Amino acid sequence: MASILLTPPAVEPLSLAEAKAFLRVETADDDSLIAALIAAGRIHVERQAGLALITQCWRLVFDCWPENGRIALRPAPVKALIAARVLDFDGEGRAVDLRPFVLDLSTSALSFRPWTLPMPTRIAAGVELDVAAGFGDAATDVPEPLRQAVRLFVAHWYENRGVVGGMQGAPLPPNAAALVAAYRMLTL
Fold this sequence. Notes:
Blueprint: E1 2-7, H1 16-23, H2 31-49, E2 56-62, E3 70-72, E4 78-87, E5 93-95, E6 102-104, E7 109-111, E8 127-133, H3 144-159, H4 174-181
Antiparallel strand pairs: 1-2, 2-8, 3-7, 4-5, 4-8, 6-7
Helix pairs in contact: 2-3, 3-4
């Protein structure tokens, strides 16, 4: 499965002012750096946990419909299935009716009867699903432990920005990793 970001989040889970207050930075000299670290912290938390923190739209691409009729959608939490398409040999997409799909919001899983859906004739990447995922549209919709993890990553990277050797030179804070682990979406 490939995941393609269609619409990024409109806001970050942490404002520049909140990050600067946490870092105890009073000048505007590093504003662009801190803003970049906030985005990097969000992306890091999202990748580690398999989540979308703020509402965003993704295209999930599969070769074909799974025989068991179930797809675990990532990133989670999925809020809506927006569109489904099957692709023909020439790459032309045909819309698939969304009524046969059942979205379990508690597990971000999609269930369906695969024999009732049109099969793609494209040999690879023949099924596309567009989904909306995230905890909500505002920073306050994100669970506080995940917001705290973003704060800790921003602080760590801000304080260690001159360390040569990347993560080997300055290991990531284990307390941030523990906060993320509690929300991690496991895959089988």
